[in-house]
UniProtKB/TrEMBL annotation:
Belongs to the DapB family. It comes from the Bacteria. The gene is dapB. The keyword Membrane does not apply. It is found in: Cytoplasm. Catalyzes the conversion of 4-hydroxy-tetrahydrodipicolinate (HTPA) to tetrahydrodipicolinate. This is 4-hydroxy-tetrahydrodipicolinate reductase. It catalyses: (S)-2,3,4,5-tetrahydrodipicolinate + NADP(+) + H2O = (2S,4S)-4-hydroxy-2,3,4,5-tetrahydrodipicolinate + NADPH + H(+); (S)-2,3,4,5-tetrahydrodipicolinate + NAD(+) + H2O = (2S,4S)-4-hydroxy-2,3,4,5-tetrahydrodipicolinate + NADH + H(+). It holds the Pfam family DapB_C. NADP(+) binds at R38. Its main location: cytoplasm. Its EC number is 1.17.1.8. NAD(+) binds at G11, A12, S13, G14, R15, M16, E37, G101, T102, T103, A125, G126, N127, M128. Homotetramer.
């Protein structure tokens, strides 16, 4: 008999929460065993299928994560940094694989995940799509091949509801470019130009964030030199790509040793 892992989706009513619920329900490799929302949210207590405008599926939306996690093998979490930190401790307690798609986490918040990763596998990535994770590796390679005559700029565009900038993906791409160049992103990152900024500093990696309408997510890595430009581009047109990646991560994590992993591990794209 094959074991089908039980999955809990946090932030059930969110843009990604609903996409993740559909993805798990459509899969024959996993089963939805829980859906979590904030205390006081109108979905709490409702059948999640009905809350999403469809037929009942027998899973009630709850505001008690520990009770839900105790019945599951994985938690897929696309919520907000504070909530994700709380869920990490509870998922570790329940020995669930914790797949984190939440972006906008500070360095301190990311470091605070470490105790949980000693008890359970955590897979965290600012972008769970295959295309972006390939672009990360391409960015690293191109940056390694070019010298500082090529200015590197990361340009991203997202819908007008997005609350964090630069996007998690833009930061992954900036990290990859910095790694390719053999520098620390913290030393060369140029964010939020405004006013008399002075000329561009050689070696900097710049970030620009566009917000508008219903843009799902677009990322360019621009390498600009005298007389030529290279642009590496990813365009997401459907949030399903992130949900499919997250479910893949939840399944990949089953039986893995406790620790901190990313989508490069899941997709087998890690080098060395
Ligand atoms: N890694 C990726 O591939 C990827 C892809 C898309 C979005 N994201 C990220 O996922 C996050 C969510 O994006 P979204 O567009 O779905 O946002 P959203 O605002 O539509 O959804 C967030 C949901 O989380 C819920 N939530 C917040 N705090 C909670 C708590 N304490 N307990 C339970 N639920 C809580 C909210 O009520 C809301 O339903 C963002 O950080 C976004 O950047 C990541
Ligand atoms: O819609 C969002 O929010 C997205 N967030 C991720 C990011 O910050 O890069 C991935 C793309 C969509």
């Amino acid at each position: 008999m094959t074991h089908t892992p039980g999955i809990v989706i946090t932030g059930a009513s969110g843009r990604m929460g609903q996409m993740l619920i559909k993805t798990v329900l459509d899969s024959d490799k996993a089963q939805l065993v829980g859906a979590i929302e904030r205390t006081g949210h109108e979905w709490v207590g409702q059948d999640v299928g009905v809350a999403m405008g469809g037929a009942p599926i027998g899973v009630l939306v709850s505001d008690d994560p520990l009770e839900a996690f105790a019945k599951a093998q994985a938690v897929i979490d696309f919520t907000a940094p504070k909530a994700t930190l709380e869920f990490a401790a509870l998922a570790a307690q329940a020995r669930c694989v914790h797949v984190i798609g939440t972006t906008g986490m500070s360095d301190d918040e990311i470091a605070a995940l470490e105790p949980a990763s000693r008890h359970a596998a955590i897979v965290r990535a600012g972008n769970m799509s295959l295309g972006v994770n390939l672009l990360v590796q391409l960015t690293k390679k191109v940056a390694a091949a070019l010298d500082e005559d090529f200015d590197i700029e990361v340009i991203e565009a997202h819908h007008h509801h997005k609350v964090d900038a630069p996007s998690g993906t833009a930061l992954m791409l900036g990290e990859a470019a910095a790694e390719g160049r053999g520098v620390d992103l913290n030393d060369v990152s140029d964010r939020g130009r405004d006013g008399i900024t002075g000329a561009r500093k050689c070696g900097d990696i710049g970030f620009t964030a566009i917000r508008g309408g219903d843009i799902v997510g677009e990322h360019d890595v621009l390498f600009a030199a005298a007389g030529e430009r290279i642009v590496l581009r990813h365009m997401a047109t459907d949030r399903a790509i992130f949900a499919r990646g997250a479910l893949k991560a939840a399944l990949w994590g089953q039986g893995k040793a406790p620790g901190a992993y990313d989508m490069l591990d899941v997709l087998g794209l890690s080098e060395g």
